[in-house]
Specification:
Layout: H1 3-6, E1 14-15, H2 20-30, E2 34-38, E3 44-49, H3 50-56, H4 64-68, H5 77-80, H6 83-94, H7 98-101, E4 108-110, H8 115-125, E5 129-133, E6 139-144, H9 145-162
Parallel strand pairs: 1-2, 4-5
Antiparallel strand pairs: 2-3, 5-6
């Protein structure tokens, strides 16, 4: 089964000049956790998701090396004193443009990429979505954990009916 079969084609996307506040409103309005960032021609230029927004709220830069050494397992309340710190960090973040905070080298799949590979990309990079694009950079859909579960359930129903 290819990613094209499990992708969502009505893609909610953002532009690089939109703010984090505007994108968070899209997250809430459409009940999503991530979206592609596209240019005026619907070409992929980045990805932004809730996980990376939360990482931007940390009192220190969080990168892959820090995550590997489990620095985030410790309680951070002693560093900045709880709620006022979060409010200050969030206030700074909300006005930032997508061009400043988006993942600029997003991982993507093609419509013909196997669903197994799409699942591997979701797991490996911890992203809520994998952008599906044409051979050009044009976005044609996204594969999310929800869309995969829906397709796997329908596949399971088909398999059980055939048994």
């Amino acid at each position: 089964m290819p990613c094209g079969d499990a992708m969502i084609t009505e893609v909610i996307s953002a532009r690089s000049d939109q703010t984090v506040a505007e994108v968070l409103a899209l997250f809430e309005e459409h009940n999503i956790r991530g979206l592609p960032v596209v240019d005026k021609d619907n070409n992929l230029v980045g990805v932004y998701n809730f996980k990376h927004m939360l990482m931007d709220l940390m009192p220190f830069p969080v990168d892959e090396k820090l995550k590997r050494i489990h620095i985030l397992d410790m309680n951070l309340d002693h560093i900045a004193g709880g709620k006022p710190w979060v409010e200050r960090q969030l206030t700074k973040l909300l006005d930032k443009k997508m061009s400043d905070v988006m993942i600029k080298e997003p991982h993507y799949a093609h419509e013909s990429t196997s669903l197994r590979e799409g699942i591997r990309l979701l797991v490996k990079y911890g992203s809520p979505i994998v952008v599906v694009k044409k051979d050009s950079m044009e976005v044609v859909g996204v594969v999310s954990s929800q869309s995969i579960v829906k397709d796997l359930r329908s596949l399971n129903v088909s398999v059980n009916k055939g048994a």
